[in-house]
Please model this.
Amino acid sequence: MKQSILFYKAEKEAPKEADTVSHKLLLRGGFVDQLISGVYSFLPLGLLVSKKICNVIREEMNAIGGQELFLPTLQPKSIWEQTDRWEHMDPPLFKLKDRHEKELALGPTHEEVITQLAAKKISSYRDLPLYLYQIQTKFRNEMRFSGGLLRTREFMMKDLYSFHTDMQDFQEYYKKVANTYFKIFKRCGLESIMVEASGLGFTNDFTHEFQVLSEAGEDTIIYCPKCEFARNKEIAELKEGDKCPDCSRFLKIARGIEIGNIFPLGEKYAKAFNLYFLDKDGQKKLVIMGCYGIGIGRLMAAVIEKNHDEDGMIWPKEIAPFAVHLLSFDHENAKVRKVSDRIYQDLQKAGIEVLYDDRIKVSPGQKLAESDLIGIPVRLIVSEKNIGKNKVGLKYRDKKTESLASISSIKTILKKW
Model:
């Protein structure tokens, strides 16, 4: 992609209402644009990152047997009445009427839709277990929205639903999903902890959240720095300085960003939609269900909160919008332009994603500042001074120092990286 035609504009200052690091940097870097409070447009750079995150999630969901589908956003009142959530959902549903005066809701979640669908397809133990997931837009009628992508009213979410013959099978898969979540977040450049939390209206059982410790987070976590004990403060009966019930180490308290959650749904939704199966003995039984979510935009924001410096974002390799940022200094210079063009074409042929800053009448200082802001992992600098030595400047975004590399070695260096 040539930067001269990229749809973005870097800003020196973020709007005053931007209150977190990720919010400020995403707006300044031209990754997102705010339409109204809590609602954002994803611009090309932001959408590239979002797609990379979705690809990581798809790979890991498919690896544990998930099958992807896509469910409707518009949902009829009737299915929400079957679970008594039309009037009692918190936050309340976005409701509307069509031209036939039929009442509908914009889906904040898809338990009702997926369960009535599964009831049409599942009849025997031979149909189970089953794992279905989607990546789709959700709508939450939140009272307040802050922190940019950390709390919004419209957002992309991966939700996986699992269907089982018994609790043992469910519990085994629940653990498998938990381990997979750790892998997903690790691939996205985050260390997460699994925190026990309340069901928040989805289930009466305790659930688990995956949290990234950050001052930008809205949740308060009581956790043990030695073992895996961690609870959301809303259910914790312990406080900082108390002894961990599992290992006796002193507990700590911290803020956290919730980037994923897993729920045991049990038989609640199966009962509401008559989701039964016949077991090996011909006995009719209710299907056991689980639910597992990841917010795409919130995950993106959390990555920035944990991967940035005073100059801008530092994207992890796997989800960066591009692998390489190629900067052509003094692009009006025919020699510089020729070498830059050749490097750009060679990297593209090698399958390396490149953002090529080919802009004219933009100073080297501005190009460097915007490159730091955008945070692409590897920077190559073509200048008249460097090409006189048959070299280019090479800098990794997460390092302070820059080195020189021969032009002929660039592809080899990047493929090993």
Q: What stands out?
A: The first strand starts at residue 32 and ends at 36.
